[in-house]
Amino acid sequence: MDGASTRNNARRDFYERIDGLSMAPLWESLHQLVPPSPAPKYVPVAWDYDKVRPFLMESGSLITAKEAVRRVLILENPALRGTACTTPTLYAGLQLILPGEVAPSHRHTQSALRFIVEGEGAYTAVDGERTIMHEGDFVITPTWTWHDHGNDSSRPMVWLDGLDIPLVALFNAGFAENGETDEQPITTPPGTSDAKFASGLLPVDWKPTRQTSPIFNYPYARTREALHGLKKAGPPDACHGYKLRYVNPANGGSPMATMGTFMQLLPQGFETAPYRSTDGTVFSVVEGEGESRVGDQVFRWKKRDHFVVPSWARVVHKADSEAVLFSFSDRPVQERLDLWREDRSGR
Ligand code: GTQ
């Protein structure tokens, strides 16, 4: 036996002996543990709404919203099957609620966002107030707030659920409880939180008690108007087109501590400069048609399609017609931890 194999055998033997003590040699895995740049173990993926919708509707005949509690098809990353993860930190799913149904009241420490994909007229109630939802609206149900959903309209409603389920699981900080009634008692007239907090004004003696935004519906009509105002005001950003982030008006931060949410407008024919950042991101197409190159994959998309851009994957969006993209990520968490990075060198 040569010197190298004698040494390797001695090392293997050593590893086996320390294995029984629940110990392992760092030097065998150091490079993976501390990579020179992010090496995500999940992949770019897209869901074509034309293919997804029939299954979503079929689920509506298999189980009621009440029995399911939440009737959702999880958008699971192909590299993370069986984990309910869309990215390693975020969960995403498409929730269906049919006319007359109620998704019963509960609360949990996981924060949730709703992004309305199809239909209008259903409501979400959060801590005693209801909001009627329309396509493109962004609605939050922050950590530990009571929430239920109901559809008093005549059409099915579908929205994208985004939750921090994997993050909360990582911390083992999950708590949940069910409401006493399916629909929580309504204590506040609709429009109250909007009136108090959504006009660049705050009630004079109001003090925030948590990081969460006091606004719980950010309607698309206003977001759209803002994007179009931006477009009139100047040239697009090379990497983003016209991109805005949703904000908690009380502190300038994200509406919820764990998830950042964004809306961007890409003018017709616009192609973004290559861009990457460390926050793996879930996109929902709101308007228009185009394609995104994510790493070496190309996803064609149109209204209501969804796709994932993993951490540090280069992305280029191209809009064939004027397009609007909603997206969410764990960016605020990474920023708080001084971890978030971007690379605009493709600009
Ligand atoms: O609406 O509370 O998609 O608790 C997954 C878990 C939605 C919700 C989901 C949930 C909810």
UniProtKB/TrEMBL annotation:
Keywords: Dioxygenase, Oxidoreductase. SUPFAM superfamilies: RmlC-like cupins (SSF51182). Residues 94-161 form the Cupin type-2 domain. GO terms for molecular function: gentisate 1,2-dioxygenase activity. Its EC number is 1.13.11.4. Coiled coil: none annotated. It comes from the Bacteria. This is Gentisate 1,2-dioxygenase.
